Amino acid sequence: MKTEIIVAENAGFCFGVDRAVKIVYNILNEGKKVVTYGEIIHNRDVTREFSERGVKIAETLEDLSELSEETVVIRSHGAGREVFDLLDKNGISYFDGTCPYVKRIQDIVKEKYSQGYEIIILGDKNHPEIRGIVSYCNNMAEICANDTELYEILKKNYTNTKKKVAIVAQTTYNISIWEKCTRMAAEVCPEAEVVSTVCSATDQRQRKAAELSARSDLMIVVGGKHSSNTVKLAEICGKNCKACMHIENADGLDFRQIKNLAENNGGEKFIVGVTAGASTPAHIIKEVTNQMSEKLQNMEEDFNFEEALDASFKKIYTGQRVKGYITAVNDAEAIVDVGTKHTGYVTLSELTDDPSLKPADVVKPGDEVELFVLKVNDAEGIVHLSKKKIDAMVGFDKIVKAKENDDILEGTVSSVVKGGVIVMYEGTRVFIPASQATVRRGDKLEELVKQPVKFKIIEVNEQRGKAVGSIRVVLTAEKDAAKTKFWDTVQEGDVFKGEVKSLTSYGAFVDLGGIDGMVHISELSWNKIKHPSEVVNPGDVIEVFVKALDREANRISLGYKKDEDNPWVKFEEDYKVDDVVKAKVVSITPFGAFAQIVPGVDGLIHISQIANKRVTNVKDVLSVGDEVEAKITEIDSDKKRISMSIRALLEDAPADEEEAAE
Fold first, then answer.
1. Helix (H, G, I), strand (E, B) or coil at 3
2. Cβ(396)–Cβ(429) under 8 Å?
């Protein structure tokens, strides 16, 4: 197998670190005693060399106050104002090695704080750079480690307030997280002043390392174990690459692990990427690549003896896929025999994403399981493992295949995130953008949480193990199929139960199961109504029937009011000509008054039938709301018209009185 070693662009010393180290070398070459305030850089090889040349390290203000003849060098991380005040007060000679990028943040924080801004800094609160920066706002800054903490602080303290807030970041902060933070801050707190302070060299180093690790089989990250920017590089590379080693120098190279990775690679070429933190000198990077090149060329010879010696031991390393047997299960974890001298542990969070389950619900003693090695602690004989990662790998393989075959998958929505939702499919997270989560834009994403959904994969990044899906394309396809089936079978008179989706001034739109039909306002009630909301509201489930179909225009006219509820039917059952009824005047016209006999049925009392005398103005005799007695004189069922007369009752009255007198 061919092996290729590639060193990332922008690896190693940055401008600020290089400047601080050169300051120390120059002072030493002048024969002066040097004291650095803290380690000049987080690299043990460099600090060891300086120590051998007599360079001492002051850790506290008290250490500085005891100096007299020494020259102090402020490291590239910078220092708090109190340090410079003490040095000036005591007349101690010093050189300020603060990186110009760090100095810029200090100046920004100082200026904004003086203008009344509250300060938020993204970074490691224990990092010396951060400790120095906060001194320029009287230690009143909020320190956030990530976007989640920033969101909570902004939401709690700065939403809908008049407070002024400025947001900056540590120079070595993870650029991808910083970009997430800036986008989120713009949404949650648009008034916040966000100043980009991540060092451009750090940005480039992280981006180039991410690009290289994405196409490498193994990534070597060289730099101090306590170096913030190097640790971030290792985190970035570890997400993109099958295996990642963080070493301080060539002595940390584990060629046994490298050999195993190469043998199990399965490809024609084994690519090793190398990057280094800002505090790693070029000669250390060179030593690492030289040893890598030499060892890999003679891989078989170098390992024959060690393999024979350690044949009885199965090797284990971070990033490896191993099989093991469950030996015990408790409420917090499963204990695994992986065939080495280590004891394996799988915590509940690495067994499953389901918070309702316990380890015993997932595995039991005696089970053989495949696991992913998260971390190996040889000193304590412990290895931390993950079943969830293996499940995700298997699930991701199925996702890739589903994308190729255009298959429909089924999963459960686990959460709503910025810009969409997450669907869990066989242990793998699939991101569904908001535009692809529902058919209608106004639908609430929160209603999908914990719901089973069908989706298709629309985008896959195999190198990063990321997948993007769409629920909408499945729903749209199902809706189109339902439409086709509906139009193939629907007939006038068919009855459906549907949900009222929306109202207009002229009717109600009803969802018949993916197909919308309209009930005209005249078809909602036998009574006269001014708006559909007098009868139905969105969300109501009602029974409707098909009145008319326009297949060419795909339009459906629906009916809602039923014949048996027709007030004319009830009227004709209960009333006939010559019946005397009590009616309520509902409207007045120049030619008479309309009075309601029963709800939905009005009769006309013509102006000539209102009184037994001449009436020139109906309003002189009747008013809307009056209750009157009238005789039904005519019923026209075809035209739905009724004529009534008050006069007829008045003309009958004298005869009745005379009969009573006799």
1. strand
2. no
Structural contact between residues 169 and 123, judged by C-beta atoms closer than 8 angstroms? yes
**Residue 422 in contact with residue 432, Cβ under 8 Å?**
yes
Of 129, 142, 333, 350, the catalytic one is 129
Q: Please confirm, yes or no, whether 39 is among the known catalytic residues.
A: no
- Residues contacting 8, CB < 8 A, separation 6+: 205, 208, 209, 211, 212, 273, 274, 275
DSSP secondary structure letters along 577-634? TT-EEEEEEEEEETTEEEEEEETTEEEEEEGGGS-SS--S-GGGT--TT-EEEEEEEE
What long-range pairs does 15-18 form, CB within 8 A, spacing at least 24?
A: 15/99, 15/100, 15/201, 16/76, 16/98, 16/99, 16/100, 16/101, 16/102, 16/171, 16/199, 16/201, 16/278, 17/41, 17/76, 17/99, 17/278, 17/279
Say if residue 660's pLDDT is above 80.
no
Over range 299-310, report the average pLDDT: 42
Under 8 Å between Cβ of 472 and 437: yes
- What is the C-alpha to C-alpha distance for residues 137 and 565, in angstroms, rounded to an integer? 77
- List of E strands, 285-437: 321-329, 333-337, 343-347, 368-377, 382-386, 409-417, 420-425, 428-433
Q: What pLDDT is attached to residue 34?
A: 93
Helix (H, G, I), strand (E, B) or coil at 237: helix
Phi–psi pair at 563, nearest 5 degrees = -60, -40
| Residue whose token pair is 């007198």 | 661
Residue among 9, 33, 457, 1 nearest 206 (CA): 9
pLDDT digits (tens, 9 = 90+) for 327-345: 888 888 899 888 776 788 9
The pTM for the full model equals 0.41
Q: With b meaning 16 or more CB within 10 Å and e meaning fewer, what string describes 516-542?
A: bbbbebebbbbeeeeebeebbeeeeeb
Q: Could you tell me the two tokens for 482?
A: 């339902």
**DSSP 8-state class, residue 447:** G
Dump strand ranges (E) for 380-471: 382-386, 409-417, 420-425, 428-433, 452-461, 466-470
Question: Among 57, 55, 66, 60, which residue's Cα sits nearest to residue 32?
Answer: 55
Long-range contacts of 361-366 (CB under 8 A, 24+ apart): 362/334, 362/387, 363/326, 363/329, 363/334, 363/387, 364/326, 364/329, 365/326, 365/327, 365/328, 365/329, 366/325, 366/326
CA 557 to CA 547: how far, in whole Å?
Answer: 5
Q: Under a CB-based contact definition with an 8 Å cutoff, are residues 121 and 130 in contact? A: yes
Which two tokens mark 223? 């730099």
Of 118, 160, 158, nearest in space to 142 by CA:
118
Strand partners, 429: 424
**Model pLDDT, residue 299:** 55
